[in-house]
Amino acid sequence: MMQFNFQSMGDLEQMKQEFIRKQRINGALLGGSLLVVGIAMIMAQLGEPSLWMQIRMWWPSIVILFFAVRLLAGIGTVKWTLIMTVIFGIIQLQKLDIVSSFWGLFWPLILVVIGISMLMKRFQRPAVKPDENVISGAVVEYTDNDQ
Question: Is residue 142 part of a domain?
Fold first, then answer.
């Protein structure tokens, strides 16, 4: 008969709390964004289009800010945030008439992002090989009572 004793069940509770925290941050960001866009659209229908026009002009920067907040909150990854920043940065430059062609700038910047990503992987410290007796941060003791 095999028996497993988890010495650190608190790790499971900590992971659950972290998941709930991330869900709350994501929900707050998305809810706040929908609220602002909805108010802007209502104001545009009532004859005050200035807020809606500003949102239409600056929405790529709002998306970049969204990903930056997620990264600072420990939810997103650097690679994903960098990719989204490049894509929406190009869209923002196009909306501001600084760049005339999205695709003309997109592919060279994608090559730059891939190059940076490859360099970051090259200079990362190697991952520590996990101990056989550790499962998700909990120490497991194995005893075989069939002897």
Answer: no
Quick check: is 4 in a domain? Answer: no
pLDDT of residue 133: 53
Domain count for the chain: 1
Helix (H, G, I), strand (E, B), or coil: what is residue 140? strand
Spatial strand order of the sheet with 138-144 comes to 2-6, 138-144, 134-135
In a domain, 139, yes or no: no
pLDDT tens for each residue of 50-91: 888 888 888 898 888 888 888 888 877 888 888 888 889 888
* Alpha helices by DSSP H, 1-147: 10-45, 50-72, 78-95, 102-122
- Residue 136's pLDDT is 53
* pLDDT at res. 141: 57
* Nearest of 109, 57, 122 to residue 83 by alpha carbon: 109
CB distance 139 to 8 below 8 Å:
yes
Contact 29, 60 (CB under 8 A): no
Q: Where is 138: in which H helix or E strand? A: strand 138-144
Token representation of residue 146: 């069939």
Q: Is the dihedral of CA 58, 60, 63, 67 positive or negative?
A: negative
